[in-house]
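ingest -> validate -> predict -> emit
validate: passed (alphabet ok, no gaps, 326 aa)
predict: started
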Amino acid sequence: MRTLLDGIKGNRFAVFGRAGMDMFAAPIGAKSEHAETFQADLGGSSANICAGLCKLGSYSALVTSVSDDAIGRFAANRLEHYGVDTTYVRKVGGETRTSLAIYESCTEDFQNVIYRNGAADFQVTGEEMDAVDYSNFTAILSAGTVLASEPSRGATFRAFENARAAGLPVIFDIDYRPYSWPSPAVASEVLSRAGSESDLIVGNDEEFGFMAGGIEKGLDKARELAAQGKLVVYKMGHEGAITLVDGQEIRTGIYPVTAIKPVGAGDSFMAGLLASIATGHDLHDAVLRGSACASIVVSKPGCAPAMPTTEQLDAFLAKHPGPTAA
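emit:
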C-alpha cells in the first residue's frame, strides 16, 4: 500500500465525478439576464480538478459518463483540450443529460443556474469502475457530488474498494451541493462514510459542519478524522485553512485578490495542493500554493480556463505581496 504522500508524489490521478458545460455571461459584470453573449467551456467540479492538475503538469484521467449528444461531446473535447485522459469517459444515451451551469462574472447578487435533471454522470456503474486500470495511477480522487445518487454512489464506493486492493490512497473532496441530494440526512450519512474511507479529506467549514450536524462542530469533526490517521484540510474562506496531520494543526492564510466571481476556488485549490505536493513542496507551502490557485481562479472569468499553469502560478506568487496571517 502506497502512503498518501507517496501516492500524490506519483502524480498520476484517476478522478471520479462529473464533467459539464459552463456558460458564463460576458462582459465581466454583466448579469445573465442582460448578457448579449456567453462564453462556453468545460465545467463540473471533477472535470475542473482534472484540467487544473494537467495545467500544473500532473497526469489526470476522468472517470465519468456524459450524454451521447453535442453537449456531452463538447465536454469530452474540452477535457482533451486541457490534456485530460478521456479513456474512461463513457457516452450514455436515453434521456440523461450532461450538466449545464450558467453564471456570471460578478460577486454582487451572483447567480448560478444549474441544470442537472437526469444527470448523465450519475449513470456510472460498478462494472465501469472494475474496468479501470488502477495500475496506471498512483492515487484516486473523488468529489462528493458523484455520491448523491445511484448507480454512481455504489460505483464510486466500489472504486474506493478497488483502489484499496491496488494499494492506492483515496483523496476525497467533500463538495457538498444540496440540490444534488435526495435529503440532508442521506447526504450526511454518505459523505461521512466517504470521509471514513479516505486518506485525504478536503472541505470547507460548512461541509465539515454539515457532516457533523452543525457548523459549530465542523472543526471537531475534522479533528476526529485526523485522529484516525487521515490528512485533513479544513478551509475557512477568507480566514484561510487549517491542515491537520500527525497531531499538528498547520494554519495558513490566503492571497487577497479582487474577486469577480465566487465559484471554482475549491477545484483550483485541490489541483494546486496535489500538484504542489507532487513536485516536492512541503505541506505548508503546498496548501499556500493551492490557496494562490484559488485566488487566481476567482479573479478571472470561467473555471477551467481560469486555472493557472505552473508558470502563471509562480508569476502570481512572485508579484503578490504575500498571504494574510494565519
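The radius of gyration is 18 Å.
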